[in-house]
Amino acid sequence: MPIYYEARVAKIEINPELEGLIDTEFDDATGGIGEDARAATARRWARAEALVGADKRLDTLVADLLGHFDRRLEAMNGKAMIVCMSRSIAAKVYERIVAARPEWHSDQDDAGAVKVIITGNAADAKELQPHIRSKARQELLRNRYRKPEDPLRLVIV
Q: Which residue ranges traverse the bilayer (predicted)?
């Protein structure tokens, strides 16, 4: 199956109300690590993830992706992969996709048209748990994705 890369752009907007909330939540989450590590983490990740994963942006992004994917499937058969900044954003994108296309969802790995593929453990947040799979379960999804005739059409990583 040929591979095509098509970048999609979704603007990032800063909601002024979130700035203080982001800082407070970050302080709570990083209270037990050294100040240098905490500062580095803050600069690299916290604000960027909040901006990239903002609800309005994800709504726009998913609507654009689904429209684009539909038009692409009209022209040719294929599959797609969405690469997200974080596991949390991947789960939020999945929720929006299955809200728009409920028939694409399945709790079973051997069924469904859309899946999130992430690693994790039992201590991860509740919204991530349905998407955390062992290596064997991830391999099953990889094999499904590689088969052009398999109904798995969209993976989110």
A: none
